[in-house]
Amino acid sequence: MHLSLTLQVRTYDSFKFNGTTQSENDILLCSVCAKLDFYRILLYGIHELEPIPLGSLSSIFEKSYQCSFCRLISLYVRQTRIMEDFPHIDISEIECGVHTTLCGALRRGPHPPLRYGRRLYITGNGLWQTHPAFRAVGPLFIHLMQEDASKFGRPVDLHGRRVKNTVDVGLVKKWIKLCQENHGDKCRNVWRMDRNLPEFVRVVDVVSMAVIPAPSHRFRHVALSYVWGGNGAEYWTTKDNIAKRSIPGGLNAANLPDTITDSISFVRQLGERYVWIDALCIIQDDLQDKISQLHAMDSVYGLSYFTLIAAGGKTARDPLPGCRPRTRTPQIHIEVVQGLHLFVTPPTHEKALGMSAWITRCWTYQESALSCRRIYFTEQQVYFECRCQVFCENIVAESKADFCRSFLRHSREEYFPFSTDSFWSYKYAVERCTRRNLTVESDIVDALTGVTNALVVAFGLGDPARAFQYGMMLTELHHALLWQHDPLTPRTRLLVDETLVDVWYIVDHGGGIVPLNVQRVSRVYWIEEEQPPYSSPGRTLDPTAMPLDTHRPLKPGTLIFCTTSSHFAITRRGGESNEESSPADHYGLFNILSATSSPTWVGTVILPLNPAPPSSLEFIVLSRCDGMHGLYDEESIKPYRGCLLHVMAVSENEGLMERAGLGIIHIVAWVASTPEEKVVFLR
To answer: What is the pTM (predicted TM-score) of this model?
Structure first.
């Protein structure tokens, strides 16, 4: 959290030199920067509401060749590539200023204001916060190096540290030890700590250089998360080479890509022996082995001592930056300003990962979320993150505390479970995962299997096969069916206030029809205005005598339930025709219209635009929800609490239904449409 200084606010003039003689420290400063007393600014602070003006960004660029402070600012701007990517921006209109923010504290308890470290915050007409190029790398902060902390009577906490060409292995070991010895259960996946890796899981022994079955005794292992970036048949473990790779020395590092060889080397340097790497530990041409291994991802990553995350490359052939010489070039540029060593802070780990290829891949979500400790290799430096702390190479932030108010502590909120509620943890994971990319879209369920398995264990949901199927949370099916593609905010979910389907069945993998244990929701409403009220179907389903107009066997995963069905006309929101849609628009908002002589807007549905939907659709009821605005004509139909129904638009073929979209409709309009009861076979 960035804390703005509210004490000892001083005016601009109080930070100007009173004398007229320019000191040696000011020779490399422009006339504007030479008038500032940087020592006093960093000692007492400048309030964000009274920033000191620095001139236009164009003037700062012009003076960057002679002024060391202007050079720091221009260096940051050039790193964003905004001049190349957005040449239309007139930088002469961007007025810059400087104020200070507090760096925070590594330890609990009160601290005198002057003991807090400060950093300079360069403003630019709000451009840093609003322009996408600047948002990607984060705001412009200028830090003081650790060697100057004593000049202010402060500890080196949260001051800058020089980054070497190669990673300081001893420093990484220190980070791991601080977490292990001081954070206790906060940094352990406590619901899995009593378990070992399943016996069918393999690991790489980095000492004997062999792929071996996971030891049966208690042991520590590391996991690797990285981007494949294409086919890797030449280094994968296959049926043909697994026997050779299982003997000591059988794993030849010369045949492996750089990400993997560097990871093996780094694990060895850290004093660990076992590492799990998917390309080596899964027999890639054995479908059964793949299935069993993928269903163990919750254990592989959830039980890992830490996970190495290769976020600095785009393929497995890229090295881990800094793991060995000449694999990275530190970009920390230090300028001496009035005797003080200042540098522009590289992106936080959140921003650095946001610019990586790694974070765009769907598979890497669960690999990160399930890991209790993560070591990120990025292009510029290595970061360590656990549930309590964030450490990095370029800022002195090591502490035994399990809590800090450091500016570094911006968690990416990808730890698992996200919530104490099982469905909200599932919902959050699905939303995060589906924002990412998959080479093979059908892999989406496998890419979430580790998370769903961990949910089962964390919340005691029983048999994973009965709690989840095809990525759907069956115990919360009323909520899980409400996923939708929102044209404005992709992939959001809606709340359920009352379940209106009493009994659910599913076709299992053996073709049998089995009941589901779906939790019911019933928030009682006193709805005097609802005349007539909505009534759920009264029939009792008999799985052995369910009518179906097809001679084909039902596919596993088919849902069977009884609800009400009705047809409504639809029209594109705003009167737009489907033909006018932009190719980039995949889904659109449609109004649901009543079947009266003068059609009324009675609901809203989100539908795919390609192919164009028909003018009328069949809808089935799922559940009741509270009133929301902007979804129907509130002047024609009276709103009241609990007046809306979650409905699914469906298409039917030979008795089987498929989802076409999801919508909301007013209960009065639904009852007036004279819906019929129907047994639904939803695939």
So the answer is: 0.86
